[in-house]
C-alpha cells in the first residue's frame, strides 16, 4: 500500500517494531502504520524540521535524527 496524504517524499528506510511500521518523510513527518495487510495509519507526527536518516529502535526506544535534533520516543 501507499502512504496517502503525506506531503513529502520518503528518503529514509522504514523501520518495524512492536507490530508497527515507522516511516519518516523528508519534511520530518513520522507516519506510524499498523503492520499487516490492511495498512492502517495509527498516527502522523510533525517533528518540524527535515529528516533524511533512517530511524533506529533500541530497547523499546525509537530514535529519529532530524537535521538539528535527535529525538527519542518510548
Which percent range fits the helix content?
A: under 10%
Largest sheet, order of strands side by side?
1-2-3-4
Radius of gyration (Å): 11 Å
Overall geometric form: globular
Structural class computed from helices and strand pairing: mainly beta
Report the uncertain regions: none
- What do the pLDDT scores average to? 90
Give a concise summary.
The protein has about 70 residues and is mostly beta strands.
Could you explain how this protein is built, in words?
The protein is an all-beta fold. The chain is 0% helix and 43% strand. The protein has a four-stranded antiparallel beta sheet with strand order 1-2-3-4, with no helix packed on it. It has a three-stranded antiparallel beta sheet with strand order 5-6-7, with no helix packed on it.
Task: Write out key terms for the chains shown.
single chain; 74 residues; mainly beta; 4-stranded antiparallel beta sheet; 3-stranded antiparallel beta sheet; globular
Lay out the secondary structure.
Layout: E1 15-17, E2 20-24, E3 29-34, E4 41-46, E5 56-58, E6 61-65, E7 70-73
Antiparallel strand pairs: 1-2, 2-3, 3-4, 5-6, 6-7
